[in-house]
Amino acid sequence: MKALKISSGILFLGLYLFQVSCSSETIKTQTESTDFISTSADFEIREIDFNSYNTLTEVEHLPVKNSSCEITSFQNLLQKNFEKLIQDPNFDVEMVFYLRDLHRKYVTHYIGPNYYGSDGQYDRLANKRMRELQKFWQLDRQIYLNGQHTATLEDPKQLADMIESFDRSVRNASEARIKASQIIEANQNSCQIPENSFFALEAFTRSNGLLVISDGILEILEESGIPEEIVFSGLLAHEWWHQAQFEYDLQWENDYKDNPELLRELEADFAAAYFLGHKRGATYNWKRLESFFNMSYNSGDCFAESPGHHGTPTQRLKAARSGFELAFSEKKKGKSGKPSEIHKAFLKSM
What we know:
single chain
């Protein structure tokens, strides 16, 4: 019975962690430190009592699901993916969250060569979309994209670099190499650690211009039936708009005050659809945008009382459709709206 309680509690927590891990950094005008910027996801991880596995206490602190909200196929796939992980004979809750947290910190600070998708299959599309988005929105900031890959956690050198950089219990490079070797050896017979998508399940942005898109979220959205190109383009356009929100923070801050996290996320769906469907953007027609609408719907969550709530499936679908309808209405005009104009149009659509 105890094992069942542990699994159920961890599973619920795992799904909630995904829901908050997509959040962009809290948008505030401030000088950033070089330390890792904590998010609600990190807070929840640290709430786990790893010694006693007192998961029932932790579950009590999770937000209540909206009973009228539909659990989407994407959320069901997330659940199945996490169930595979906790059923693995090598599963250890402390190690699993240690690696996930370590990987998130690493990808947040990494600067260097990048590839997108597990085999680099999105490299050309990423470069194309990055150029288009920069030209389309003309933001006054340098934006760069990091890919996140489970393969990174299997590389002894990269894992040792992560440990040396972010594990404060390790004193030097030699100790980091030893610990990395021990972790890889302990998991060599596992088919889930670190191959499971849980270890690379990120799509977020930071005010320093960083965007992150992971293999895991791409693969699960694709498995839910969304075409590959739409998945990558939609995620990238959504996260890009958060950069506009950072840039215009002082002008727009009061517009979000009633429900800042929700409004910023819905606006990112609105702006992403606007870019994808605009004549000067990705030029997707209605038929192709239907897949993005499906993606927006699937990405909704039912934790309406959570501070990290991004919108129900219905809310996210409505925002995306409204953004495309605005782009379609400007078809003859040709010229795209400035970020401030799109922001006003979004607020009007609410």
